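$ ./design --mode recover --in tokens.txt
reading tokens...
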């Protein structure tokens, strides 16, 4: 293999695929990046056996071939390469020489035969989503997934493809985020995708691109621009999200709250809350929202803000993190907070997006 490419293209490719380079040494080849060249393109691949990423960049190919280079070290070098043309040449059986200006670096590579093949995914569900819309729904939903690997189903995002709609849901059993967008693709069904995978794909999607996807029984394929992702899906039974969302008749209060002001107040209160039990007490009533947080070794914070409130006067305690995260991801000038009781679920919705819903459970104190 011998190719020439521009430094900025090479850096983009290596940074992209390095996110799936394995940090574990169970299979040494998984710590590497596979490079191969053909048809005036340089392909880069990596995998940790849960997520595989492929990126192609333009290149002048003098000789085709394949080589696996140490992923972390290769990235570290490419970051510091000078601008301009970089020449990559396979030397010896598995070595790669990187030439730039008047210098060169030789990497001891690995046998590409040992590198897992990039899977081909064929499935019954396929279609495209505009990248801006995909990025929005991932941002509004994926944060609610669990990070506890002991319950894998809840570390994923549910994609529920129904006729004409895609419903995306994430929950850690203490809160739930749900968003609905139009879906004109082929097929219906459900799949659970790791939340981290969804966030990685959203990060790389450019605003003017489409996200193409294909879903099989065990894998999901995404492509956006020069980059393709293949992720395992999470096996298991996802809870029926429709069953946990309260019916309209269950709500005893409804408040209209200015989003930006609410966020500012909660950020201040969380300074104290996180040094204590991590909770904030909210008091709804008389068109005022009161809030209180305390920490034994720090102090207390109390305050209030004006709201429009209908229904009973009520006091509820919430995990401050769960309130802050939805406020940072919700859209619109105002939000609606509807409660069913002091220890039962409440929901938050937006004046700007009727398809977004956030369910949150209070914290029981004492």
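writing sequence...
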């Amino acid at each position: 293999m011998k190719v020439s490419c521009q430094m900025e293209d090479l850096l983009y490719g290596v940074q992209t695929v390095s996110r799936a380079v394995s940090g574990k040494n169970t299979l040494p080849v998984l710590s590497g990046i596979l490079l191969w060249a053909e048809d005036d393109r340089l392909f880069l691949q990596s995998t940790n056996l849960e997520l595989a990423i492929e990126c192609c960049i333009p290149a002048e190919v003098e000789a085709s071939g394949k080589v696996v280079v140490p992923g972390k070290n290769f990235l570290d070098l490419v970051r510091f390469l000078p601008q301009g043309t970089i020449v990559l040449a396979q030397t010896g059986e598995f070595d790669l020489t990187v030439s730039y200006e008047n210098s060169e670096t030789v990497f001891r590579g690995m046998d590409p035969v040992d590198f897992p093949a990039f899977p081909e995914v064929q499935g019954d569900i396929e279609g495209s989503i505009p990248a801006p819309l995909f990025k929005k729904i991932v941002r509004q939903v994926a944060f609610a997934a669990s990070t506890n690997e002991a319950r894998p189903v809840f570390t994923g995002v549910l994609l529920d493809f129904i006729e004409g709609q895609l419903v995306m849901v994430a929950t850690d059993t203490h809160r739930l985020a749900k968003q609905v967008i139009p879906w004109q693709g082929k097929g219906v069904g459900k799949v659970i995708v790791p939340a981290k995978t969804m966030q990685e794909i959203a990060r790389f999607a450019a605003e003017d691109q489409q996200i193409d996807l294909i879903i099989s029984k065990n894998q999901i394929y995404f492509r956006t621009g020069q980059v393709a992702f293949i992720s395992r899906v999470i096996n298991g039974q996802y809870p029926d999200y429709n069953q946990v969302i309260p019916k309209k008749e269950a709500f005893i209060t409804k408040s209209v709250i200015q989003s930006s002001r609410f966020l500012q107040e909660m950020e201040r209160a969380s300074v104290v809350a996180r040094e204590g039990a991590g909770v904030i007490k909210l008091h709804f009533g008389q068109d005022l929202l009161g809030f209180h947080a305390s920490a034994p070794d720090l102090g207390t914070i109390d305050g209030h803000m004006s709201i429009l409130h209908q229904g009973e006067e009520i006091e509820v305690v919430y995990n401050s993190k769960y309130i802050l995260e939805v406020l940072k991801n919700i859209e619109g000038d105002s939000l609606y907070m509807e409660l069913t009781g002091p220890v039962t679920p409440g929901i938050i919705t937006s004046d700007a997006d009727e398809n977004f819903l956030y369910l949150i459970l209070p914290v029981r104190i004492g």
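exit 0
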